[in-house]
TrEMBL record:
Domain W2, first and last residues per copy: 474-646
Organism this protein belongs to: Arabidopsis thaliana
Subunit details: Component of the translation initiation factor 2B (eIF2B) complex which is a heterodecamer of two sets of five different subunits: alpha, beta, gamma, delta and epsilon. Subunits alpha, beta and delta comprise a regulatory subcomplex and subunits epsilon and gamma comprise a catalytic subcomplex. Within the complex, the hexameric regulatory complex resides at the center, with the two heterodimeric catalytic subcomplexes bound on opposite sides.
Any matching Pfam family: NTP_transferase
Taxonomic superkingdom: Eukaryota
Annotated SUPFAM superfamilies: ARM repeat (SSF48371), Nucleotide-diphospho-sugar transferases (SSF53448)
GO-annotated cellular components: cytosol
Tagged with keyword Cytoplasm: yes
Name of the featured protein: Translation initiation factor eIF2B subunit epsilon
Length: 647
């Protein structure tokens, strides 16, 4: 090892005058180097896939600009021409006097994050583009956290300790984690230096801690979410150049530094506040979770009814429904809460669309049911179709009476035949799945768990040869290739459905355990270990029953045990609000339930007041339940102010 051999770090003078003159810079990796989004990413790069009808990369760019980043280097590998073309046509290139200067770096030979950073370092020795400390993020990051103060903290720490070369951003999980792995981290509680970093494949797993760490005070956390936002000094690039076994950013680089006693480089941590949002979309599960967070406005101001990237905003209406101004909906169609309808989309008679995102230019026929799904642009869905918890890409046609079972992914321009049932968790593409990595224009490269290509993933899909155009009897040819394993399921490659994936399994198991305890009249202190046996750390509120008050009173101890964080309590309030919106019988109960939840210490004053503040800026139609609780919230505010005066 020997970062001292390399000149890049030496090019940055560390006196305060130079630091104050440095531009705030960032490197954005526009290639995830994974196969999690196949077969979609065989045709389009992941950063250009829409999330709530806006390309992922636009969320990242808008955030970086608002956070004060002045110069951004976008590293492109797979589908690089598509990314560059998109950027050149977007407002990031075309608007006059931009606050954010966007440059692209292209490498067709990189197969990992390590390769990408080594290539950037090689370019750096010739061009010196990276002037000093920089932010390292992926183009699938959605965040609204501030960066300027964090960068300054990193620089101040580096002045005092030249070995402090990296700061990693974390957030405490207030809800079930976005990813499928559980993270264990150990930090120095005073300095916030990272001492241990370990991912376990399942929640509730064990981890190993070096016994030398036990000689001092160590804070061990199992409820932290890695935001994959890093503040780096230039030495980070040179370390990748010196160590070719650094391929994976966390598994290799971070853990490599933590066990290296020779160079002595240090990594520090920064925990963002609960009011900030930061998450990566690294698999289909997190695609679903982040989409819901955007719709529920956790990512404000990056929400559908605000123009933040040149994409036309849609109007927010009652029940949290976003609808484009020119969308056409039959008066007999029912569009439910937390749904987005894009521009130029038409919805026929008797349709039922709930908790879904519908893209631009879609044509949805009569008596169609769409639930928990993501329908992209220019999709045609004929009469009588049923689609649940699926992703349907651009240009797809679903013929009359067809059914997409949960977890289905239809890639671009697939046609599903009349009355055909696509089996659960099938992934359908017009392209034959590759078995070799012969071009970065064909696939995203390396599996995140190994740094090498996942050659078996092509077998785990329901495939269509390129010459076949349809699924089912309407097709000109019947060339469907079904793998021997039959129906398919992947722990990390599916949409988060209530009945089939592990999160749904968890909810079902906990609900069964809970209701069983109610029926058996068990004591509350017995139920907590039973629920913990299902390897869950944080639980959301259960369904609201007609006897909600009685159940809450009996089980307030259990609910309080799992709802300690303010964000979790806000989510409970929003869940009750959503259920009341969808039920005429429950709607009048909301104004009574909220004070009751407060009285029983299920939700606290801070959570209620923050919920009220968030709702205050919404349209009148979205403040129905806030208005119902106006007198109660006013009383809480006055009581809070009196306490402050007394103190």
């Amino acid at each position: 090892m020997g970062a001292q051999k390399k000149p890049a770090a030496a090019k940055v003078r560390e006196d305060s005058e130079d630091l104050s003159c440095q531009r705030l810079q960032a490197i954005l990796l526009a290639d995830s180097f994974t196969t999690q989004f196949r077969p979609i990413t065989l045709e389009r790069p992941k950063v250009l896939l829409p999330i709530v009808n806006i390309p992922m990369i636009d969320y990242t760019l808008a955030w970086l600009e608002s956070a004060g980043i002045e110069e951004l280097f976008v590293f492109c590998c797979a589908h690089s021409s598509q990314i560059i073309d998109y950027l050149k046509k977007s407002e990031w290139y075309t608007r006059p006097n931009p606050n954010l200067l966007v440059r692209t770096i292209v490498s067709h030979n990189s197969t990992s994050v390590g390769d990408a950073l080594r290539y950037i370092y090689e370019q750096q020795t010739e061009t010196s583009q990276i002037q000093g400390d920089f932010v390292l993020v992926s183009g699938d990051t959605v965040s609204n956290m501030p960066l300027a103060d964090l960068i300054q903290q990193h620089r101040d720490r580096k002045k005092k300790d030249e070995k402090a070369i990296m700061t990693m951003v974390f957030k405490k999980q207030s809800r079930l984690g976005i990813g499928s792995d559980q993270l264990f981290v150990a930090v120095d509680p005073l300095t916030k230096q990272l001492l241990h970093y370990e991912e376990c494949n399942s929640r509730g797993g064990d981890f190993c801690l070096d016994k030398s760490l036990l000689d001092s005070t160590v804070l061990v956390c199992s409820d932290m979410q890695d935001c994959y936002i890093d503040i780096c000094s230039p030495e980070v690039l040179s370390l990748f150049e010196d160590n070719f076994d650094y391929q994976h950013m966390r598994r290799r680089f971070v853990n490599g530094l933590l066990v290296d006693d020779i160079m002595g480089y240090k990594i520090f941590t920064h925990e963002i506040q609960s009011s900030c949002y930061a998450a990566r979309i690294d698999n289909l599960r997190s695609y679903d979770t982040v989409s819901k967070d955007i719709i529920q406005r956790w990512t404000y101001p990056y929400v559908p009814n605000i123009d933040f990237s040149g994409n036309p905003p849609v109007k927010l209406g009652r029940r949290g429904i976003y609808r484009a101004s020119d969308a056409v909906q039959s008066h007999t169609a029912d569009v439910g809460a937390s749904t987005v309808i894009g521009y130029g989309t038409k919805i026929g008679n008797g349709g039922k669309i709930y908790n879904s995102v519908i893209g631009n230019g879609c044509c949805i026929g009569s008596n169609v049911v769409i639930q928990g799904s993501y329908i992209w642009n220019n999709v045609t869905i004929e009469d009588g179709c049923e689609i649940r918890n699926a992703i349907v890409c651009d240009g797809v046609k679903v013929r009359a009476g067809a059914v997409l079972q949960p977890g289905v992914v239809l890639s671009f321009s697939v046609v599903v035949g009349r009355d055909f049932v696509v089996p659960a968790y099938s992934k359908v593409s017009l392209l034959q799945q590759p078995t070799t990595e012969d071009s970065d224009e064909e696939l995203e490269y390396a599996d995140s768990s190994s740094g090498t290509a996942d050659h078996s993933s092509g077998l785990n899909n329901l495939q269509i040869e390129s010459k076949a155009s349809e699924l089912g009897p309407d097709g000109a040819e019947d060339d469907i290739v079904v793998p021997p394993s039959g129906e398919l399921k992947s722990d990390t490659d599916i949409i988060n459905t209530d009945a089939n994936d592990s999160y749904g399994d968890f909810e079902r198991e906990v609900e069964e355990e809970f209701l069983s305890a109610v029926e058996k009249d068990n004591k509350a202190d017995i139920v907590i270990p039973l629920i913990n046996s299902h390897r869950v750390h944080i639980i959301s509120a259960t369904e609201l029953y007609r006897n909600a008050m009685g159940v809450i009173t009996k089980w307030k101890g259990v609910l309080g045990f799992y709802l300690k964080q303010t964000d979790a309590q806000i989510e409970v309030i929003m869940k009750f609000e959503e259920m009341c919106q969808e039920s005429e019988e429950l709607s009048p109960l909301f104004a009574k339930l909220l004070p009751f939840l407060y009285d029983k210490d299920v939700v606290q004053e801070d959570a209620i007041l923050r919920w009220g503040e968030d709702k205050a800026g919404a349209d009148d139609c979205d403040k129905v339940y806030l208005n119902k609780c106006e007198s109660f919230i006013k009383w809480l505010k006055e009581a809070s102010e009196e306490e402050e005066e007394d103190s």
